[in-house]
Amino acid sequence: MPADHTHASSGCFDTAAQDAVYRAIFTRRDVRSHFLPDPLDDEVLARLLMAAHHAPSVGFMQPWNFIVIRDLQRRQKVRDLFLAARQQELPHIAEERQALYRKLKLEGICESPLNLVVTCDRSRSQNSPLGRWHNPEMDLYSTVCAVQNFWLAARAEGVGVGWVSIIDREALKQVLAIPEHVVPVAYLCVGRVSEFALRPDLERHGWGNRLPLAELVMSEIFGGDGESGLKETVTGLCAGRTAA
Ligand SMILES: Cc1cc2nc3c(=O)[nH]c(=O)nc-3n(C[C@H](O)[C@H](O)[C@H](O)COP(=O)(O)O)c2cc1C
Fold first, then answer.
1. How many CB atoms lie under 10 A from the CB of residue 159?
2. Which residues contact ligand 1 via a Cβ below 6 A?
3. Helix (H, G, I), strand (E, B) or coil at 80
Protein backbone atom coordinates (compact mmCIF):
# COMPACT_ATOMS: atom_id res chain seq x y z
CA MET A 1 0.00 0.00 0.00
CA PRO A 2 1.37 3.46 -0.83
CA ALA A 3 2.71 5.42 2.15
CA ASP A 4 0.06 8.11 1.77
CA HIS A 5 -2.86 5.68 2.27
CA THR A 6 -4.50 4.30 5.43
CA HIS A 7 -5.65 0.70 5.49
CA ALA A 8 -9.47 0.64 5.61
CA SER A 9 -9.60 -1.56 8.71
CA SER A 10 -7.25 0.65 10.73
CA GLY A 11 -9.19 3.63 9.39
CA CYS A 12 -12.25 2.52 11.34
CA PHE A 13 -12.76 4.80 14.36
CA ASP A 14 -12.97 3.25 17.79
CA THR A 15 -16.42 3.23 19.39
CA ALA A 16 -15.85 6.37 21.45
CA ALA A 17 -14.76 8.31 18.38
CA GLN A 18 -17.73 7.02 16.38
CA ASP A 19 -20.04 8.06 19.20
CA ALA A 20 -18.49 11.52 19.19
CA VAL A 21 -19.11 11.94 15.47
CA TYR A 22 -22.75 10.90 15.78
CA ARG A 23 -23.13 13.05 18.88
CA ALA A 24 -22.01 16.12 16.94
CA ILE A 25 -24.46 15.25 14.16
CA PHE A 26 -27.46 14.60 16.40
CA THR A 27 -26.94 17.47 18.82
CA ARG A 28 -26.01 20.13 16.26
CA ARG A 29 -28.60 22.88 16.29
CA ASP A 30 -29.35 25.99 14.33
CA VAL A 31 -28.86 28.62 17.03
CA ARG A 32 -30.42 32.08 17.02
CA SER A 33 -30.82 32.71 20.76
CA HIS A 34 -28.78 32.14 23.91
CA PHE A 35 -25.60 33.65 22.47
CA LEU A 36 -23.15 34.78 25.15
CA PRO A 37 -21.32 38.08 24.63
CA ASP A 38 -17.89 36.41 25.10
CA PRO A 39 -15.61 36.89 22.10
CA LEU A 40 -14.72 33.72 20.24
CA ASP A 41 -11.10 32.75 20.64
CA ASP A 42 -9.12 32.95 17.37
CA GLU A 43 -7.66 29.49 18.17
CA VAL A 44 -11.15 28.00 18.17
CA LEU A 45 -12.30 29.91 15.10
CA ALA A 46 -9.17 28.79 13.28
CA ARG A 47 -9.98 25.14 14.03
CA LEU A 48 -13.52 25.58 12.75
CA LEU A 49 -12.23 27.18 9.57
CA MET A 50 -9.78 24.31 9.14
CA ALA A 51 -12.70 21.88 9.41
CA ALA A 52 -14.59 23.85 6.75
CA HIS A 53 -11.52 23.96 4.51
CA HIS A 54 -11.29 20.15 4.58
CA ALA A 55 -14.71 19.70 3.04
CA PRO A 56 -15.01 17.82 -0.22
CA SER A 57 -15.23 20.00 -3.32
CA VAL A 58 -15.89 19.32 -6.98
CA GLY A 59 -12.60 18.97 -8.90
CA PHE A 60 -10.87 19.90 -5.60
CA MET A 61 -11.94 23.41 -6.51
CA GLN A 62 -12.17 24.73 -2.92
CA PRO A 63 -14.35 27.58 -4.11
CA TRP A 64 -14.89 29.08 -0.65
CA ASN A 65 -13.80 32.21 1.14
CA PHE A 66 -14.68 33.11 4.70
CA ILE A 67 -15.57 36.71 5.54
CA VAL A 68 -15.31 37.31 9.30
CA ILE A 69 -17.57 40.17 10.36
CA ARG A 70 -17.12 41.58 13.85
CA ASP A 71 -18.05 45.22 13.33
CA LEU A 72 -21.43 45.87 14.97
CA GLN A 73 -22.43 48.68 12.61
CA ARG A 74 -21.89 46.45 9.60
CA ARG A 75 -23.90 43.70 11.29
CA GLN A 76 -26.69 46.17 12.02
CA LYS A 77 -26.84 46.95 8.29
CA VAL A 78 -27.19 43.25 7.57
CA ARG A 79 -29.87 42.95 10.25
CA ASP A 80 -31.81 45.73 8.50
CA LEU A 81 -31.58 43.67 5.31
CA PHE A 82 -32.97 40.71 7.23
CA LEU A 83 -35.88 42.75 8.62
CA ALA A 84 -36.76 44.01 5.14
CA ALA A 85 -36.47 40.53 3.62
CA ARG A 86 -38.68 39.03 6.32
CA GLN A 87 -41.38 41.59 5.52
CA GLN A 88 -41.12 40.64 1.84
CA GLU A 89 -41.28 36.92 2.60
CA LEU A 90 -44.25 37.16 4.95
CA PRO A 91 -47.05 37.48 2.34
CA HIS A 92 -45.76 34.29 0.69
CA ILE A 93 -46.24 32.26 3.86
CA ALA A 94 -49.59 30.42 4.15
CA GLU A 95 -52.02 32.80 5.85
CA GLU A 96 -52.75 30.52 8.80
CA ARG A 97 -49.01 30.32 9.56
CA GLN A 98 -48.20 34.02 9.31
CA ALA A 99 -48.83 34.79 13.00
CA LEU A 100 -46.42 32.01 14.01
CA TYR A 101 -43.87 33.13 11.38
CA ARG A 102 -43.90 36.64 12.88
CA LYS A 103 -43.14 35.23 16.34
CA LEU A 104 -40.23 33.03 15.29
CA LYS A 105 -36.72 34.22 16.08
CA LEU A 106 -34.93 33.67 12.80
CA GLU A 107 -31.55 35.33 13.29
CA GLY A 108 -28.94 36.27 15.89
CA ILE A 109 -26.96 38.70 13.75
CA CYS A 110 -26.20 41.30 16.42
CA GLU A 111 -26.42 39.13 19.54
CA SER A 112 -23.71 36.74 18.39
CA PRO A 113 -20.13 37.96 18.80
CA LEU A 114 -19.28 37.43 15.16
CA ASN A 115 -20.81 36.67 11.82
CA LEU A 116 -19.23 34.60 9.10
CA VAL A 117 -20.08 34.61 5.43
CA VAL A 118 -19.07 31.58 3.43
CA THR A 119 -18.82 32.50 -0.22
CA CYS A 120 -18.38 30.56 -3.44
CA ASP A 121 -16.00 31.93 -6.05
CA ARG A 122 -17.52 30.57 -9.25
CA SER A 123 -14.44 31.42 -11.31
CA ARG A 124 -11.92 29.38 -9.31
CA SER A 125 -11.76 26.37 -11.64
CA GLN A 126 -9.27 28.04 -14.04
CA ASN A 127 -11.31 27.20 -17.14
CA SER A 128 -11.15 23.49 -16.27
CA PRO A 129 -14.59 22.63 -14.93
CA LEU A 130 -13.77 19.09 -13.77
CA GLY A 131 -17.14 17.70 -12.61
CA ARG A 132 -18.94 20.92 -13.42
CA TRP A 133 -19.36 20.90 -17.16
CA HIS A 134 -22.77 19.20 -16.95
CA ASN A 135 -23.61 20.42 -13.47
CA PRO A 136 -22.12 23.84 -12.92
CA GLU A 137 -23.90 24.25 -9.59
CA MET A 138 -21.59 21.66 -7.99
CA ASP A 139 -19.32 24.46 -6.72
CA LEU A 140 -22.24 25.80 -4.70
CA TYR A 141 -22.90 22.33 -3.26
CA SER A 142 -19.20 22.05 -2.35
CA THR A 143 -19.44 25.30 -0.43
CA VAL A 144 -22.42 23.96 1.49
CA CYS A 145 -20.27 20.95 2.46
CA ALA A 146 -17.78 23.41 3.96
CA VAL A 147 -20.59 25.06 5.91
CA GLN A 148 -21.70 21.72 7.32
CA ASN A 149 -18.14 20.81 8.38
CA PHE A 150 -17.89 24.17 10.15
CA TRP A 151 -21.27 23.62 11.82
CA LEU A 152 -20.45 20.15 13.13
CA ALA A 153 -16.99 21.13 14.35
CA ALA A 154 -18.55 24.14 16.07
CA ARG A 155 -20.98 21.88 17.89
CA ALA A 156 -18.13 19.72 19.11
CA GLU A 157 -16.39 22.88 20.42
CA GLY A 158 -19.59 24.10 22.14
CA VAL A 159 -19.98 26.96 19.66
CA GLY A 160 -23.41 27.87 18.33
CA VAL A 161 -24.04 28.54 14.65
CA GLY A 162 -27.18 29.93 13.05
CA TRP A 163 -27.72 30.20 9.31
CA VAL A 164 -29.62 33.28 8.11
CA SER A 165 -30.99 32.97 4.61
CA ILE A 166 -33.72 35.63 4.79
CA ILE A 167 -31.55 38.33 3.19
CA ASP A 168 -31.59 39.81 -0.28
CA ARG A 169 -28.43 38.42 -1.87
CA GLU A 170 -27.62 41.41 -4.08
CA ALA A 171 -28.07 43.86 -1.22
CA LEU A 172 -25.79 41.72 0.96
CA LYS A 173 -23.16 41.66 -1.79
CA GLN A 174 -23.19 45.44 -1.83
CA VAL A 175 -22.82 45.79 1.94
CA LEU A 176 -19.89 43.34 1.95
CA ALA A 177 -18.24 44.45 -1.32
CA ILE A 178 -18.58 40.95 -2.76
CA PRO A 179 -17.66 40.88 -6.46
CA GLU A 180 -20.04 39.81 -9.21
CA HIS A 181 -18.62 36.29 -9.75
CA VAL A 182 -18.75 35.41 -6.03
CA VAL A 183 -21.93 34.07 -4.39
CA PRO A 184 -22.56 34.51 -0.67
CA VAL A 185 -23.73 30.97 0.13
CA ALA A 186 -24.18 31.13 3.89
CA TYR A 187 -24.58 33.97 6.36
CA LEU A 188 -23.77 32.51 9.77
CA CYS A 189 -24.14 33.87 13.31
CA VAL A 190 -21.40 32.34 15.43
CA GLY A 191 -20.56 32.34 19.11
CA ARG A 192 -20.55 30.68 22.49
CA VAL A 193 -24.01 29.89 23.77
CA SER A 194 -25.52 29.22 27.18
CA GLU A 195 -27.40 26.19 25.88
CA PHE A 196 -28.18 24.06 22.86
CA ALA A 197 -31.83 23.16 22.41
CA LEU A 198 -32.52 19.44 22.31
CA ARG A 199 -34.88 19.79 19.36
CA PRO A 200 -34.98 22.16 16.36
CA ASP A 201 -36.59 25.51 17.20
CA LEU A 202 -39.05 25.13 14.36
CA GLU A 203 -40.15 21.79 15.76
CA ARG A 204 -40.54 23.15 19.29
CA HIS A 205 -42.67 26.01 17.98
CA GLY A 206 -44.94 23.76 15.97
CA TRP A 207 -43.70 24.81 12.51
CA GLY A 208 -42.74 21.31 11.43
CA ASN A 209 -41.69 17.84 12.51
CA ARG A 210 -38.88 15.57 11.40
CA LEU A 211 -40.25 13.41 8.58
CA PRO A 212 -40.29 9.65 9.06
CA LEU A 213 -37.01 8.53 7.50
CA ALA A 214 -38.34 5.16 6.30
CA GLU A 215 -40.87 6.97 4.12
CA LEU A 216 -38.05 8.82 2.37
CA VAL A 217 -36.15 5.67 1.39
CA MET A 218 -36.83 4.34 -2.11
CA SER A 219 -35.71 1.25 -3.91
CA GLU A 220 -33.95 1.21 -7.28
CA ILE A 221 -36.02 3.99 -8.87
CA PHE A 222 -37.70 7.11 -7.61
CA GLY A 223 -40.80 5.99 -5.76
CA GLY A 224 -39.66 2.35 -5.92
CA ASP A 225 -41.05 0.01 -3.23
CA GLY A 226 -38.80 -2.38 -1.40
CA GLU A 227 -35.96 -2.30 1.14
CA SER A 228 -38.38 -3.41 3.85
CA GLY A 229 -35.57 -4.75 6.04
CA LEU A 230 -33.65 -1.51 5.82
CA LYS A 231 -36.78 0.51 6.51
CA GLU A 232 -37.59 -1.57 9.57
CA THR A 233 -34.08 -1.06 10.91
CA VAL A 234 -34.26 2.65 10.24
CA THR A 235 -37.63 2.89 12.00
CA GLY A 236 -36.20 1.07 15.02
CA LEU A 237 -33.24 3.46 15.14
CA CYS A 238 -35.48 6.51 14.90
CA ALA A 239 -37.75 5.19 17.67
CA GLY A 240 -34.69 4.63 19.86
CA ARG A 241 -33.58 8.22 19.31
CA THR A 242 -37.02 9.66 20.12
CA ALA A 243 -37.18 7.63 23.31
CA ALA A 244 -33.64 8.67 24.35
C1 LIG B 1 -29.73 26.54 3.91
C2 LIG B 1 -30.32 26.86 5.25
C3 LIG B 1 -30.89 28.10 5.48
C4 LIG B 1 -31.45 28.40 6.72
N5 LIG B 1 -31.96 29.66 6.95
C6 LIG B 1 -32.45 29.97 8.16
C7 LIG B 1 -32.90 31.29 8.46
O8 LIG B 1 -32.88 32.21 7.65
N9 LIG B 1 -33.35 31.55 9.70
C10 LIG B 1 -33.40 30.57 10.65
O11 LIG B 1 -33.83 30.85 11.78
N12 LIG B 1 -32.96 29.32 10.41
C13 LIG B 1 -32.48 29.01 9.20
N14 LIG B 1 -32.02 27.75 8.95
C15 LIG B 1 -32.06 26.72 10.02
C16 LIG B 1 -33.20 25.75 9.87
O17 LIG B 1 -34.41 26.35 10.22
C18 LIG B 1 -32.90 24.55 10.78
O19 LIG B 1 -31.74 23.92 10.29
C20 LIG B 1 -34.02 23.53 10.83
O21 LIG B 1 -35.16 24.11 11.39
C22 LIG B 1 -33.63 22.29 11.64
O23 LIG B 1 -33.15 22.68 12.92
P24 LIG B 1 -31.70 22.29 13.42
O25 LIG B 1 -30.71 22.87 12.46
O26 LIG B 1 -31.59 22.91 14.79
O27 LIG B 1 -31.61 20.81 13.45
C28 LIG B 1 -31.46 27.42 7.73
C29 LIG B 1 -30.87 26.18 7.50
C30 LIG B 1 -30.30 25.89 6.28
C31 LIG B 1 -29.66 24.55 6.07
1. 22
2. 29-30, 32, 106-107, 163-166, 200, 202
3. helix
Which of the four pLDDT bands, split at 50, 70 and 90, describes residue 240? confident
Query: Rounded mean pLDDT of 13-28?
Result: 97
111 CA to centre of ligand 1 in angstroms: 17
Q: What are the residues whose beta carbons fall under 8 Å from the beta carbon of 218, sequence distance 6 or more?
A: 224, 227
Expressed in angstroms and rounded, the spacing between residue 200 Cα and the centre of ligand 1 is: 9
Specify the pLDDT at position 6.
Answer: 73
Residues 48 and 150: beta-carbon distance below 8 Å: yes
Torsion of the alpha carbons at 93, 96, 97 and 103, rounded to the nearest 10: 120
- Where exactly are the structural domains of the chain? 27-208, 211-244
Give residue-wise pLDDT tens across range 138-150: 999 999 999 999 9
Q: Which atom of ligand 1 is nearest to the CA of 165?
A: 8
User: How much is the pLDDT for 4?
Assistant: 80
Give the mean pLDDT of the chain: 95
Q: Which residue of 163, 168, 204, 210 sits with most ligand 1 atoms within 8 Å of its CB, as the best mutation to test the pocket?
A: 163
Mean pLDDT of 102-113: 97
- Measured from the Cα of 167, ligand 1's closest atom is 8
- Structural class in CATH, domain 27-208: alpha beta
The rounded distance, in Å, linking the Cα atoms of 156 and 205 is 25
Of ligand 1's atoms, which has the minimum distance to the CA of residue 202? 21
Measured from the Cα of 144, ligand 1's closest atom is 1
Q: Which pLDDT belongs to residue 241?
A: 80
SS3 readout for 127-147: CCCCCCCCCCCHHHHHHHHHH
